[in-house]
Specification:
The chain has 289 residues and is an all-alpha fold. Helices cover 73% and strands 0% of the residues.
Amino acid sequence: MSTNGAYYIPHKAVWPFIGTSGLMIMLAGFANYLNGSGIGSTMMVLGLVMFILMLTGWFALQAAESESGMYNHGVGISYRMGMMWFIFSEVMFFAAFFGALWYARNLSVPWLGGLGDGPGRATQEILWPAFESAWPTNGPGNIGGEFEPMGAFGLPFINTLLLLSSGVTCTWAHHGLLAKNRDQLIKGLIATVALGFTFVACQAFEYYEAYHEMGLTLGSGIYGSTFFMLTGFHGFHVCVGAIILSVVLFRSWKGHFTPENHFAFEGAAWYWHFVDVVWLGLFIFVYLM
């Protein structure tokens, strides 16, 4: 297990098997739930419990091994490369949804309305001659029902300030860690976590208003579906990031992390800043434009 001059080789662990089993049970339960099976919801809960158990046990093991000095520089590089590729996969995930929004707004809707050259006129004549191109749209024939588009100022602008502020507090906490100022580290993390969960609460209220006051739902045409898919997945990522930072906060309170060994904090900070950047894109392309 020593890593003096050698790369750390992990010992056998059951956590990958438990995590995979939990995800498979969740997926099977969800499929059964969609098909009306009574056991579907039970399987989903069981799979979720197994997955949470895996996260708790595996991360606790990693923290114990890291704090005991088992990991060397090579392991740190591997962790950082893994986190970089993970964030890159997340970039591609959101790029797909941003691409769908761009395609719908700039190509398919104008074509369906007869705008542009040959493709636009042909598309309108074949599919829906009476459709008038506009954004936001609830589809030809008003199939999505009447709705009010979400404005940029109000809760979305407040959420933007919350996330930008959380990025500042996270960086402040990082500087505290590097300066061996444990008090600054903990206070910065508390502020970051509080701002993150406040963002989630504001977005939940925004969704409530959208559904009950504005008529804006997932069924409100391409505008409603892209709006809720982009903001919903981003909100989920904010929840995940806030939970990760909460774990980092607990470990910091327990005395973990030094200026030389703090990848868990660093990885969480990278993820949080990624979430901030994605929201800025959302605010511009979904709310403002």
